[in-house]
Amino acid sequence: IAVVSPATGEGRSRIAAELSAAYASHGHETLLVDANLRAPILHAMQFSAGPRIGLCSALSGETPWRDCVMRASAPGMPDVLPCGIPEEGSMDLLRERLRQLVDEAASVYEVVILDSPPFLTYSESLDIAHNSDIAILVARARVTSTREFESTLSYLHRLGARVAAVVLNDA
Q1: Alpha-carbon distance 142 to 43, whole Å?
Q2: Rounded CA gap, 171 and 127, in Å?
Q3: Quick one: CA torsion of 77, 137, 102, 155, rounded to 10 degrees?
Q4: Single pTM value for the model
Q5: Could you give the count of Cα atoms lying within 13 Å of 164 in the half-sphere of its Cβ?
Q6: What is the spatial distance between Cα 42 and Cα 73, in angstroms, rounded to a whole number?
Q7: Partners of 135 in the beta sheet?
């Protein structure tokens, strides 16, 4: 599941974290992936220390992705694959290797949720949505413009992404 939004500040990471917690609390083995290489934050929602290894290390081949996963801090919480430290070329590696990593994670976890960078700003969001079975589009009332929302939805449809839900924050 890719969680996307047109721009920053729309609540995308919070929705990804809450959705993953909801799945995990209902007994589903859940992995939350911080694929926002531009402004990673998900690890801070559950863990106090910032990880040095994560998705970027796995994509580069430096560390197997399973060794980068931060185990749930409490029962009923998701495991987290933090972003790690992005390096030059991380975005290209995301484009090339994300599908394989998602497929491998899906063979271990019942639910894999990917937080993405702002859709209209960074091209890797297209790759994240394309490599996911479904997308959830997040918008914020009185913040997300109709034009931004419609553009994002149009791009997702042209990509062939299945938009399963729209979340309107602060409605």
Answers
A1: 28
A2: 29
A3: -170
A4: 0.93
A5: 9
A6: 13
A7: 2, 163
- Give yes or no for a contact between 68 and 59, defined as CB atoms under 8 angstroms apart: no
Amino acid type, 4: V
For 21-66, write each residue's pLDDT tens digit: 999 999 999 999 999 988 887 766 665 556 778 999 999 999 999 9
Q: Is 79 helix (H, G, I), strand (E, B) or coil?
A: strand
Question: Nearest 5 degrees, angle CA 147-CA 116-CA 17?
Answer: 110
* Tens-place pLDDT, residues 152-171: 999 999 999 999 999 999 97
Tell me how far apart the alpha carbons of residues 146 and 119 are, in angstroms, rounded to a whole number: 15
Q: How far apart are the first and last CA of the chain?
A: 23
CA 21 – CA 76 distance, rounded (Å): 7
Instruction: Classify residue 155 by its DSSP letter.
Output: H
